[in-house]
Design goal:
Layout (H helix, E strand, L loop, with lengths): L7 E4 L2 E7 L5 H4 L3 E5 L5 H25 L16 H25 L3 H24 L5 H11 L9 H25 L16 H11 L4 H17 L10 H14 L4 H20 L34 H8 L17 H10 L5 H5 L6 E4 L3 E6 L16 E4 L2 H6 L1 H7 L19 H13 L11 H12 L6 H8 L4 H8 L6 H8 L7
Antiparallel strand pairs: 1-2, 2-3, 4-5, 5-6
């Protein structure tokens, strides 16, 4: 039987033929609704043409029924158990979706003839459905339930204890839905059911993670974008119904796009894994579906053939190219929005291993003189001074390298009038100071012929770390880790009884940081 929300609908001055495909044939037919222009504004002509389309469509559907899978075929899915609450959630979502779609059709406007036709159709097939329900017959329910579960990407094993309970509840939901639509056609008001307030949505998982800690706006937006992408691809109606196969399918979809590197995909999966874990920790979920879902590390992405992006240190020739470039030639005029940052940020990063944003947000008062050890940077977190660090380990003191002193850095600091060390820099919409500079520096590298995507500003930090590792016999690993902000604050306090790593060993190490050539 062809289930139709309307057959003949008038849109503007033209009639349309419109029919809803039975749920169990949607997958085979390729769409759930047929809508065709009858190319006439005359009602009698439209009825005649609509009748022809109906006969033709029913013939097509009869052919598809014969080719469709047998109703008694088993599922071979990922879910064996569903709680009563989850079964109710699946059926409530089905009922709400069907009534919402019908409400949209009604709001657009149904022609009186269409209303009468719908009444005839529903009155014709509802008695059969009621008889099947009374007799406990599920034969006609299986294919429709199978199609709906595929839409949700949720497969329930036919032999599981939960399947029959789900099928019988689904049969009841179908009766309720079609009975409600029939009431609407007769002029009886039927509201769209609200989703239960205790249903945990996928977006609720994101909000759960967000509440756990005041997040950096840029980080929060990065997580939110991943969740938006996941919600588009995952049709599980609630977060509790998201299973590991859904996580695997999301990973595979990202890989099939061929737009992201393996590292980027792994990062997105890490976001989701972290967020879902907060829900597990808060007893909102029983398990984390993203645990164990990984991306194989490879030099080249399998789909795109592109080399995975990885930040690498600059070579000596590239460093020479950078520091003999236009910025370091007499007469260079920086962009007003960047100012002296163009000149100072590269050598500061190269001779300290500090991150770009850490340097960009320094204040003049963060360059401190200590009589015994000389000048050092204070990298810290302060709400009042609008300074943030990546994590607790990033709070540290870093000696000013002798090369920076030789270049005139201290002289530059003394000429500043207070406030930020680089006052021309302005925050972006996420509160990041270094965004405009980072964009400019990338273009600057391109102008120098350094076009390898693995070479970015962060490569200065890699240069510093690599050099320290090469000279590990004279620059201890502990000193290196403390200088770049990797050493645990708890470890420092436990060993030295101090909040920050002592300056003396760092000052000695800085004198050994040299780039031969």
């Amino acid at each position: 039987m062809l289930h139709m929300a309307s057959n003949i609908t008038l849109r503007g001055h033209t009639y349309y033929f419109r029919a809803r495909i039975p749920t169990h044939l949607v997958s085979a037919y390729g769409r759930s609704i047929v809508s065709l222009s009858l190319r006439t504004g005359d009602q009698a002509t439209a009825i005649a043409r609509g009748r022809e389309h109906r006969v033709s469509l029913e013939r097509e559907l009869d052919e598809l029924k014969q080719k469709s899978p047998r109703a008694d075929e088993d599922f071979h899915g990922s879910v064996f158990h569903l709680s009563d609450g989850e079964i109710d959630s699946v059926c409530e979502r089905f009922r709400a979706a069907m009534l919402t779609d019908d409400e949209v059709d009604r709001i657009k406007g149904l022609h009186p003839i269409s209303v009468e036709q719908d009444i005839d159709i529903y009155e014709a097939f509802l008695p059969d459905m009621r008889m099947a329900y009374a007799a406990g017959n599920l034969n006609h329910v299986h294919p429709r339930l199978r199609t709906y579960l595929k839409k949700l990407k949720l497969e329930v094993a036919r032999q599981s204890p939960a399947y029959e309970r789900l099928a019988r509840r689904f049969q009841q939901a179908e009766l309720e839905v079609y009975d409600a639509i029939l009431k609407r056609r007769r002029g009886i008001a039927v509201d769209i059911p609200l989703v239960a307030s205790d249903v945990l949505t996928i977006h609720d998982i994101y909000n759960c993670w967000l509440r756990r800690k005041a997040q950096n706006p840029k980080t929060a937006r990065a997580f939110e974008q991943v969740f938006e992408d996941f919600e588009k691809l995952c049709l599980a109606p609630t977060a509790r119904l998201v299973k590991k196969p859904d996580a695997v399918a999301f990973r595979n979809a990202l890989q099939n796009r061929g737009e992201l590197s393996s590292a980027s995909i792994s990062k997105q999966l890490g976001f989701l894994r972290a967020a879902f874990q907060t829900a597990v920790d808060d007893d909102l979920l029983e398990s984390n579906p993203f645990i164990g879902v990984k991306v194989s590390a490879s030099k080249y992405d399998k789909q795109s053939g592109k080399q995975s992006k990885k930040r690498l240190p600059f070579s000596i020739s590239e460093l020479n190219n950078i520091f003999t470039g236009p910025v370091y030639q007499p007469g260079f005029k920086p962009r007003p929005s960047l100012g002296s940052a163009c000149y100072w940020l590269p050598p500061m990063a190269l001779f300290s291993g500090a991150r770009l944003e850490e340097l960009a947000q320094l204040h003049v008062s963060d360059v401190i003189f200590e009589p015994e050890h000389g000048y050092y940077f204070r990298i810290s977190e302060s709400t009042e001074r609008e300074q943030e660090v990546k994590n607790e380990n990033s709070i540290r003191n870093v000696p000013v390298h002798p090369m920076l002193v030789e270049m005139g850095f201290i002289k530059y600091v003394k000429q500043c009038k207070g406030g930020r060390l680089f006052p021309a820099l302005r925050k972006d919409s996420y509160g990041i100071l270094s965004t405009s500079y980072s964009t400019w520096f990338g273009k600057y590298l391109d102008s120098l012929g350094i076009t390898d995507e693995s070479r970015v500003f962060h490569s200065f930090r890699h240069c510093f770390v690599e050099l320290c590792k090469v000279n590990v016999l004279t620059i201890p690993a502990e000193v290196r880790e403390a200088t770049v902000g990797h050493l645990s604050a708890k470890m420092i306090e436990m060993v030295y009884g101090l909040a920050l790593y002592p300056l003396a060993p760092q000052v000695s190490a800085m004198k050994l940081v040299k780039y031969p050539g």
